[in-house]
Amino acid sequence: MAHRADRRSKGVPRFPRLVLRLPDWVETALPDPGRVYATAEERMTAVIRLAQLNIERGTGGPLGAGVFDQDAGTLLAPGVNLVVPASCSVAHAEIVAIAISQRMVGCFDLGGQQMPRYELVTSTEPCAMCLGAVTWSGVRRLVCGARDEDARMVGFDEGPKPAGWRQALDARGVSVLVDVCREQAVAVLQRYGRTGGLIYNARQGR
Amino acid sequence: MAHRADRRSKGVPRFPRLVLRLPDWVETALPDPGRVYATAEERMTAVIRLAQLNIERGTGGPLGAGVFDQDAGTLLAPGVNLVVPASCSVAHAEIVAIAISQRMVGCFDLGGQQMPRYELVTSTEPCAMCLGAVTWSGVRRLVCGARDEDARMVGFDEGPKPAGWRQALDARGVSVLVDVCREQAVAVLQRYGRTGGLIYNARQGR
Fold first, then answer.
1. Is there a contact between B202 and A135 if contact means CB atoms under 8 Å apart?
2. What is the CATH number of the domain that holds A62?
3. Structure pTM?
4. Residues in Cβ contact with B75 at an 8 Å cutoff, skipping those fewer than 6 apart
């Protein structure tokens, strides 16, 4: 109580802001803002590299994502998993990429009129939370590398996703492309598992 | 390109940070950090009031949430829907409450050892995204006011949630209490709908 009163009397807010920022190495790893990633495979290769670098630099889990202009092939914003360093269970790679992209365009809807068609490329199929986030983001396509079962094999938990999640997205105007560079995406997950990377899970009844 | 190059040459990062902060009125509305909300109904009444104030102050949608110490009855951190003002489709009340709470305790897991048992109280049952977020947050209980169908009745979309979502949470060690002050929670949703508040939805195939 005294501590909180002190904070307030000094003008320090009682409730802090949530701040999520990409690690410094991300800009260096993506030096050319005008680069065209012509195919789904090129885009996936780029986000898998982010996942790999995220492990090597020790800045989070083995998961990367990016929002791309589907037609022009340019990257709007990347995302990497920041859960542990940011102390934020929400900071999955997809959430980070979506939120930073929306900040860049200044709108909560990446599917707004007059906007390019955006797509989310993610190194592993989205968990239950990120599946919902895709629905609200405004992206027109979801491109996935490793599958749910690949993530589970390494010990990650994908959460309570509906069985027909691909169809559910499709019915909402978000097409889904899976297994893009799946082997390379799985290799990053497995490397993380082998090197003893922290795998945080839901409570699983514990 | 030139614009981006300018940003970089001035040391401005290419990718902005995501910053989410509660509206200024929230601290004023919750003046006593030590206040004990003894029952689920008292906690729900507090978050419904946040939902109502969020409309009145014009700072977001008609949805409020809060993370409470389940046994002590104190509020760790509140959340309100900030989607439109923050230009962030992820900024649902539950996400905001969870993320700020984790920042306050300095850990991505609100269910860590040595911690009090935390619960998330939300004025409307969580959407697909927030359901997943609850799973990863570490809270031990979810307390809900209005139901999915109440939100849909006003025009909100709850997204692709699995049919057995309550059981899925329970199986993961998160108990679920529903219909707490449901009428009062529904009244706030309806008031928002009647006054022509913006209802943003998923693409719904458009």
1. yes
2. 3.40.140.10
3. 0.93
4. B30, B33, B35, B37, B43, B46, B66, B67, B68, B69
